[in-house]
Amino acid sequence: MATNLGNYTLNLDTSPSLLSFAAVGSKKEAEGPIGKQFDIINEDSLFGQKTWELAEGQMQKIAAEKALEKAALSPGEIKMLFAGDLLNQITASHYGLRELGIPFIGLYGACSTMSQSVILASMMVEGGLINRGMAVTSSHFCSAERQYRFPLEYGGQRPPTAQWTATAAGAVIVGQSSAPPYIRRVCVGTIENKNVKDLTNMGAAMAPAAAQTLSRFFADTGTGPDNYDVILTGDLGQVGSDLLSQLMEREGYKLEGKHADCGLILFDRDTQKVDAGGSGCGCAAAVLCAYLLPAMRKGKVNEVLFMATGALMSPTSVQQGQDIPGIAHLMHLSTSPKAGGG
Amino acid sequence: MENLTDHAYGEMVKKASPPSKSFRDIPLAFLIGGGICTLGHFFISQYERWGVSEEIASPAGLITLIFLAVLLTGLGVYDKMAKVGGGGSLVPITGFANAVAAPALEFKSEGMILGLGAKMFLIVGPVIVYGVASGVIYGLILYLFKLY
Amino acid sequence: MEVFWEYAKAFLVGGAICAVGQVLIDYTKLTPARILVTFVVLGVALGGLGVYQPLVEWAGGGASIPLTGWGNAIARGTREAVAEKGIYGVLSGGLTISAAGVAAAIFFGLMGALVFRPKEK
């Protein structure tokens, strides 16, 4: 059973494994630096569907099926499904995954949903309540734009702090196995806000939550950045990444050389016109499933902190003048089940 | 984190956020905006040359621009132009037309009535509301103080 | 030469008004819809004060095509209608003068939406 480390961190004593994982993307993601590593790329971002919302659901379905196929499992062998997306009432997950027939728990954590869902699945496995769980999340540029910003054909200019919502989905199956990567520790974040109200500067809204969770994890575990090969945050973008480094330095931790951000890995800022970087649940999901986990399987990186970050506003709350709360959930992934990583 | 005030963090955010490239944006807005206005002016003069009365030539020029802007919106070109032109494609009447056509196209998937019909005014609704209202207020002032 | 100067005036005035819009985009947090509202209301105010119409006469399309020109037209239409029809004109003037433009935007917008569909970005 899991043991508490400090106030916020849980040590998963059985070290559940990430058994299988799959990433799905579209055209712009394929053109990015990790485009070749996606399991499935569909250049048509409608994915053969009638609406962008159905397309997003379809991506989740494809990702889930691919993860099952890679593990040679049938849906019936997954005991619980944790999924979420960015849409109102998370309909991409509901419509996309309804045919799988797996007991379903819908989640909303904005862009932090990938961490949130994997953490929940791994805690259920750790507790022995289920033997296998699956985590799926997605985002779609076109469905997010029309919900949060402007119609696609509307001529607006994006400020340089804006981020580009990824059209991507990722699925991870968690269970007990002797094969790495393992999930060793998890740290569930608290809702943090520092009165950021700018809808076009999400990185700034989420950086305080990321810094809070990360420094709590270091304090709880008695470790620091040097104990890990890479600290991967989910879509802070350039602005948020800079702010995270500064905030961590105030807390006494130097992230230089250790920190990377999913939003800066998925897209090339210089050539892909994404301004401050990528964002959306699908961004962290795709980078985790297409880039980080395969690299861990190959042993290229061994001790990793993965922390997806979310901005928890809605169009309504922003129009009503509220600030933008952020959240960050952290998981410590490792290629060894016990030793190492501090 | 607790010892960092919202204000102090706001200052950090300001420093970390790159500013808009105004040295490039403003001249581009000038060029594209000026270009659209010149094109409109050409239409107006052309209609006059064809014998259309001055009173009708001016709105006819505007309507021609509106037509072109809707067409470019449908072809997926106007938003690309706006990425470059910014204020230059927002402020002319073509920006208004784009703001009518873009949500109409986008929300067609929610049906002809509550999708296309209602959402058409998503962006320009307020422009019509406050334009008309300020005209009425102006008219009231004229009427009450006998300024006409 | 005269024709050149006529177009140059339209270009310069239109460009300058749009550059003001760009300044608002870059230096304020105003959303596009707010900027459009600002321009129209400003046009009504400047038109009401009699400042804008001379600019339209000088620069033609350069002043009538930016949204401030629509505001100016609303003011002008209202003034003429109040002079002619009294209190009724207070309500009828603004939309009467802009009827064709608004109808065109709505009708073309509808047709455009029927023919085209949004493209992926």
Walk me through this protein's architecture:
- The complex is a heterotrimer of chains A (342), B (148) and C (121).
- With 342 residues, chain A is α/β, with parallel strands linked by helices.
- Helices cover 34% and strands 23% of the residues of chain A.
- Chain A contains 11 helices and 15 strands.
- The longest helix of chain A has 20 residues, at 202-221.
- Chain A starts with a strand and ends in an 8-residue tail after the last strand.
- The mean pLDDT of chain A is 96.
- With 148 residues, chain B is mainly alpha-helical.
- Chain B has a domain at 23-123.
- Helices cover 77% and strands 0% of the residues of chain B.
- Chain B is extended, with a radius of gyration of 21 Å.
- By secondary structure, chain C is mainly α.
- Chain C has one domain (2-115).
- Chain C has helices at 2-27, 32-48, 52-59, 61-64, 67-85, 87-115.
- Chain C is globular and about 50 Å long.
- Chains B and C meet through helix 2, helix 3, helix 5, helix 6 and helix 8 of B and helix 1, helix 2, helix 4, helix 5 and helix 6 of C.
Radius of gyration of chain C over all CA atoms, rounded? 17 Å
Low-confidence stretches of chain B: none
Largest interface: B-C, 77 and 78 residues
The number of distinct β-strands of chain C equals 0
Oligomer: heterotrimer
Helix content of chain C: over 70%
How are the secondary structure elements laid out?
The complex is a heterotrimer of chains A (342), B (148) and C (121).
Chain A: E1 3-5, E2 9-11, E3 17-25, H1 27-30, E4 40-41, H2 52-70, E5 80-84, H3 91-97, E6 104-106, H4 113-126, E7 132-139, H5 141-148, E8 164-165, E9 168-175, E10 182-187, H6 202-221, E11 230-234, H7 237-250, E12 259-261, H8 262-266, H9 269-272, E13 278-279, H10 281-297, E14 303-311, H11 315-319, E15 326-334
Parallel strand pairs in A: 3-4, 5-6, 5-7, 8-13, 11-12, 11-14
Antiparallel strand pairs in A: 1-2, 2-10, 3-9, 7-9, 10-15, 14-15
Helix pairs in contact in A: 2-3, 6-7
Chain B: H1 6-16, H2 22-49, H3 54-74, H4 78-85, H5 87-90, H6 93-106, H7 112-119, H8 125-144
Chain C: H1 2-27, H2 32-48, H3 52-59, H4 61-64, H5 67-85, H6 87-115
